[in-house]
Amino acid sequence: MELKKHVVKGMAWTFAEKVFTALFQMLVGLVLMNFLFPDDYGTIQILVVFTSVCSVFVDSGFSAALIRKPEVTQTEYSAVFFFNVLVASALYIVLLAITPFLSRYYHSPVMLSLAPVLFLLVPVNSLANIQNTMLTRSFDFATISKYTVWATLGGSCAAVIMAITGCGIWSLLGQRLLTPAIKSLLLWLRSDWRPTGRPSMRALRPMTGYSSRLLLSDITNTIYANISELFIGRMYTKNALGYYNRGKQYKDMPVSAVISSVQNVTFPALSKLQDNPAKMRLSAHQVTVVMNFLIYPVMLGLIAIAHDFIDVFLPDRWLPVVPYFQILCLSGLFAPLSVVSYNILKIKSDGKLIFRLEVLKKLIATAILAATIPVSVKAIAWGQTVIYFSDALINTIGAGRFINWSVWHGVKSTAPYMAMSAAMLAAVYGMRTLLLEHAALPLVLLAEILTGLAIYWLLSIALKPEGWREIRIILEQIAANRK
């Protein structure tokens, strides 16, 4: 019961933070896109791909290893901290060394001045890994959420000011770097923990087997999640990459808001249930239906309003984003089942099965990328959707080895929300058809949004799907905890 109380409270704080952050970043993104151009985003994204890959090496799976351990010593915390900082520093030097090559390869001289600053993300992100891990272990998601919000506000406001004052592409760099720097500073000021003693790599050895296999999985996931953007930037144009990236980022915002808020809380919570497969399966099922209930209407609703939304809020130069965004939104539908199944694998497996499944998934992804990259950017977007589907399918089958978790279970946990969201989508398109020639576009957009919300709410009340019931229980428990 105490664990469930921690989970509910943690989900409330984390979900509130993620939703606020996503909405705020969406607003800031719209402001920046009015001042910037697609090739600005394309250039920055090429460099961000390299920082993302390096950040996985910095952590090397040790954060997850610490979270799942029943007890962690000061020596282990210090060892992981020193490892993170040393690896981050070494990787920063490597990134500086390859910067001239990247600048020539992508025909972008501006990278020579941007890269040394943006690559500071790697060491900056490493500084507060332990503080974040300790807060996660203690279910103190309120502190993490508060500091994430403050950091987002600080970094985003700085970016808007920079864009308005004519800083151009540097405003994107400022946002990318300042947000994690502010969060790291706040976590250090708040925490009493400090590394002690000399670095002891011996303390890492018991965790190395698990963390190394997790590293292999995470690094391949990160590479395959970003590799298409590197090809787009080279084989097509930075404008095309900017359009694709904006579509991907705006798809990711609502998905990440739901997935991250639930995953960050449920991974440590499910870890506590690893010796009780029945309870783990029940908890995983409840998490899945809640995420499906939230994500499906958002993804299909965004597909419906995408064109009108960009027409209202952005210059015409951004209209090519629409088809990429709509296609990539479909990939978000497979995220809940994939993430929950992968969490089960991380908890129940020693890492060997995860690695074998990753090999299979990446063979499939490689074939899809090889087939789509030479065709067009739109084909790449469709390929990404197929990759997300195959990942969800394979993760689910893998998790079934440890608990009573099957593909049929995934279909049952998905079908009601797909049907309700499809009905909502039809209603939104119907409303658009009725009003488009008789009202101003902002009013049409408002009517579409209100129609979608009303239809999904009414269907939830009438059908009372499990996800709706679980969310009501969570809200009631949050209210009870506040009293």
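the 2nd protein, sequnce then structure:
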Amino acid sequence: MTPVADLTIDELSGDVHPILNQLRADTPVVWVPAIDRWLVTDRDLVLKALLDVATYTVDDPRFTTAQVVGPSMLSTDGAAHARHRSPFALPFRRNASVTGFAATTQRDAAALVDELRRRNPSAQAADLRAGLAAPLAVSTITDALGLVDTSGEDLLAWYREIVTAVEAVTAGKHPGPSVQAAFDELDRAVRRSLDGTGSIIGTIAARSNLTTAELVSNTAVMLFGAIETSEGMTANALVHVLADPSVLQQLRDRPELVEQAVEESLRMEPAATLVDRYVTATTTLGDVVLPQGAAVSLSLAGANRDPAFFDDPDRFDLGRANVGHHLAFVHGPHACIGMHLARLETAAALKAVLGVREGVTLVDTEAAQPRGLVFRKPESVPVIFGAPAPS
């Protein structure tokens, strides 16, 4: 393996799992110059940091997303975090998600697959990431938020500006004026929805003491999570299933295992692979003394393939008994509030693809390899509907 001091962003963004496996075995808490922070790969240590919010905080001026969107549930801890998070969490609890969105999500997924089949007849490749995972993520959060007079195209455009701005700040650059224009549009959409019937934003505003600016910041965070990570989660799951004929056959024979496949895919390749924390006081993690102010990246990908907890962790196993203990949605106060909705989306996408009578074949495994330092997903998921022509 490349020495830690020489690891590059490209190496950490590519086939990273062998690197994480070696780091976990040798130095589970290690300083990585390429990302300018400590990297933690051991599951027990990752979990310890996630649960100890007094020592490992998100409330730090270096938190790049907060620099773009302002204070939100993503970048606060303690009482401030509860004030931001609680009003948004209630509408996305499990029962509400299942009751409110299961039927529409399955309908939308089936319609997207039908459209891909219509546009891409036999022997012509279709991209399940661009044509299914991405639009399903957008339509689901559009329906969920219910912003008045706001389309999925609007939300997608604002989300892209936010992502571009966060990437610019992370690279030490100024985000530019276009993100402010996007925030102005989002602000107007939120204000239009404060008294709107059927709008979650209006309901949240009525039962909280969040300011309009705080509602906008948290809505931006919801867009970021609901589109970026849900698209990646669905695309990764499609690759895991379609790339392994035995898994694909198991799911066709036993469709009740689809939810298990979603969880195993989350374990194997979490869409958000790193979460950042900042040390509030000198502390020891594993065998390493972390000074006050240390920046730490907790590797969810490393934790999810820890052989001390998951047997044969690099194998996709539909029978894995403890798969529900993966950390893909984080643990503790910052656990993803959209996890149940995201699971619905990915399960709906898998069911829609599995329901294609002529079958679906993955035709480019290289393009379908997940990549990314923080958010990991394939460049594309190219498939042919029906069996490929013999070579």
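Residues 212-242 form the longest helix (31 residues). The chain has one domain: 4-385.
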